[in-house]
Amino acid sequence: MELQETTKAAAPEYFTTTTQTEVVSIPVTPRMSTPEGVTPSGTRSPNSRRPMMKQSSSNAWTPTSLISPRFLSPIGTPMKKVLINMKSYLEEVGHLTKLNSQDAWLPITESRNGNAHYAAFHNLNAGIGFQALLLPVAFSYLGWSWGMISLTIAYVWQLYTLSVLVQLHEAVPGKRYNRYVELAQAAFGERLGIWLDLFPTIYLSAGTATALILIGGETLKLFFQIVCGPLCTTNPLSTIEWYLVFTTLCVVLSQLPNLNSIAGLSLIGAVTAITYSTMVWVLSVSQPRPPSLSYQPLSSPSFSTSVFSVMNALGIVAFAFRGHNLALEIQSTMPSTFKHPAHVPMWRGAKIAYWLIAMCVFPVSIGGFWAYGNLMPAGGILNALYVFHSQDIPRVLLAATFLLVVFNCLSSFQIYSMPVFDSFEAGYTSRTNRPCSIWVRSGFRIFYGFISFFIGIALPFLSSIAGLMGGLTLPVTFAYPCFMWVLIKKPQKFSFNWYFNWTLGWLGVAFSLAFSIGGVWSMVNSGMKLKFFKPN
User: Fold this and answer.
1) CB 507 within 8 A of CB 187
2) How confident is the model at residue 211 (pLDDT cuts 50, 70, 90)?
3) What values do phi and psi take at 152, rounded to 5?
4) Residue 223, SS3?
5) Burial degree of 399 (CB within 10 A; 0-12, 13-18, 19+)
6) Which residues, 6 or more positions from 423, have their beta carbon under 8 angstroms from its beta carbon?
7) Residue 105 in 3-state DSSP?
């Protein structure tokens, strides 16, 4: 074999190799500038050994770490191209995530084409709703100072735990925790994770869905009364029949197959929630305030009663920031690669969503308490608007407000029911090893919708026990993410991060117990007769 080197002016260099059958010209890569600390052969420079060692220790290992300049330098150009293309493929396509074939059959992970816009829609739809309308009730027990302090602390706290959940979604290389319960099992263990997480998340999803049926049905009844006026006095539908009408609408909309397919509904829910929240506090502030209004916290006959009332009010504040049980599920609908991890669009959408949520919950709390003070009914600001100003506000505006609440309840029902649908179908597919047919999927969703309807009839006070729901589900939002961060990320013991997360986690558990006791006391003290609206 004879090796000849030929050169041409203003042209790249070539090595020409001659064999018995052919002559092959291989281009020689021009000499490039070498990064500081790396020699052309790929070895480290002795002068920069310390920076390079520090840099390599801070970078996490990835499946493409071996495809480095040092590894590629002794390999010929064609093989080098193949390996570089392989590296790009691994970074763009799969980053070697272990995929579960069952995930392609389930409604949460069936579609992975989500983006930051979808994340914003879903987080808004899940994070704001009827619970924000109850915040002025909490202020009537806490007063201005403690009401604002507790609301601000709760908002900042839940925003931090949301960022923790977003980062923990892909905390382990090659593994995506697509559901909250999966992350809990990874942190606390298989059995303990299920025991700690299953009840609050199912209670939050199913309890919220049942409460939405009650509130949506009652609001739909009031909307019909406002629109029809005196014409609706003959043979009107009862409250239970309106629950049935609303449940039927929820079941029809629940036939959408997966979480990404309801992005349009989440957008509608987000827009309607922002609109009616703004309308409610603007209409309340624009009307004359009721006489004998006071901003002093409601007095109680005994010290213990006052303590329980405050605990229940703080539970209402905690319940206003729900939706963390859906954070991982929303993020799992997005594609993820090394170059474009899913946490980037998720966090971008979540920041926009929770900025808008702050623009809703703070004005509703401040404006509602300013307009009604401690005269605020137990049903919240929407009930107060109907009781105090139903004759002063134009019927069109009042009817539009109630209709927006109905649309928001319909949309929120879908996203909060999706984890329950996912659990039903996961049980079916694991037993049959095949995806659900359209009839099985529809059957599950019809069954769940009407089970929630019957629970709402049996427990008609469920929509009024926001304090109890906030206490029972508080660990999902405020405590568990801090514990899971420490157990999975394993920060250095006795460091600030270690102390900070353990402290927040145990404070969340303590508050959960206290708020739950306050919620139970409030429910028993009221004789289980509180309702969001008092049906006529």
Assistant:
1) no
2) confident
3) -65, -45
4) helix
5) middle
6) 202
7) helix
What whole-number distance in Å separates Cα of residue 165 and Cα of residue 325?
10
**DSSP state for residue 230 in the 8-state scheme:** G
Token representation of residue 156? 């900042």
**How far apart are alpha carbons 413 and 530 in whole angstroms?**
22
Please say whether the beta carbons of 472 and 316 come within 8 A: no
Indicate the residue type of 236.
Answer: P
Q: Which pLDDT value is given to residue 486?
A: 95
| Cβ–Cβ < 8 Å for 243, 213 | yes
CB 179 within 8 A of CB 422: yes
For residue range 387-416, list pLDDT tens digits in order: 888 888 888 888 899 999 999 999 999 999
- Main-chain phi, psi angles of 16, to 5 degrees: -105, 125
| pLDDT at res. 239 | 87
* Of 365, 409, 452, nearest in space to 154 by CA: 365
Inter-residue contact 197 to 181 (CB < 8 Å): yes
The whole-angstrom separation of Cα 174 and Cα 266 is 30
The sign of the CA dihedral 40, 45, 47, 50 is positive
Contact 175, 95 (CB under 8 A): no
How much is the average pLDDT of 208-232?
85
Instruction: Note the pLDDT of residue 379.
Output: 81
The answer for residues whose C-beta is within 8 angstroms of residue 244's C-beta and 6 or more apart is 217, 453
Q: Which of 40-54, 74-88, 154-168, 354-368 has the lowest mean pLDDT?
A: 40-54
Residue 177 has pLDDT above 70, yes or no: yes
Gyration radius of the chain's alpha carbons: 29
Classify burial at 348, counting beta carbons within 10 Å of its beta carbon; exposed 0-12, middle 13-18, buried 19 or more: middle
* CA 339 vs CA 92, 93, 113: distances in Å: 7, 10, 16
Question: Which distant-in-sequence residues (6+ apart) come within 8 Å of 113 by Cβ?
Answer: 260, 333, 334, 335
CA–CA distance, 414 with 294 (Å, rounded to integer): 40
Amino acid at 24: V
Report the distance separating Cα 98 and Cα 94, nearest Å.
9
Helices (H), 475-527: 480-489, 496-525
pTM of the model: 0.79
